[in-house]
Write a structure and sequence with these properties.
2 helices, alpha+beta, 3-stranded antiparallel sheet
Length: 131
């Protein structure tokens, strides 16, 4: 197992980035996530990954964080490496995806994304916890 890890992770969007950004990123992410042969998620859109971080000296165990990935790569069938602009790396696992993101990917795969509020990060989290 790689570390630091983000458990119970979710894919989020900022409302100010617009619906088109959300739709494109959600659809492309769903295709990447469900296609093991795809090694890298290449999408210029803006998205965030949130979850509870573990084994990271900069955060309290289980603290909720929001990160903005620069790159997202598959390192094996169920493990992904997120690299931030700072060069820091975090790892997520398919087994730790949140129900919220499973529902988002289901909607994206069916072309049924709607303007639900839970796709977006609450305003109170737009800056203080954003890494």
């Amino acid at each position: 197992m790689y570390s630091p890890t983000i458990e119970n992770w979710s894919l989020y969007f900022l409302f100010l980035d617009g619906y088109e950004n959300r739709n494109k990123v959600a659809k492309d992410f769903t295709r990447f996530y469900s296609t093991p042969s795809m090694r890298k998620f290449d999408n210029p859109g803006r998205y965030l990954i949130s979850g509870n971080v573990y084994d990271d000296i900069d955060h309290v165990q289980g603290e909720e964080i929001f990160i903005v990935p620069t790159t997202l790569e598959r390192i094996d069938k169920d493990a992904f490496c997120i690299t931030l602009k700072s060069g820091a790396k975090y790892y997520i696992y398919a087994s730790e995806v949140s129900k919220r993101t499973k529902n988002l990917m289901r909607d994206a795969s069916r072309n049924a994304l709607v303007n639900r509020r839970w796709y977006y990060v609450a305003k109170r989290f737009h800056t203080p916890k954003l890494i």
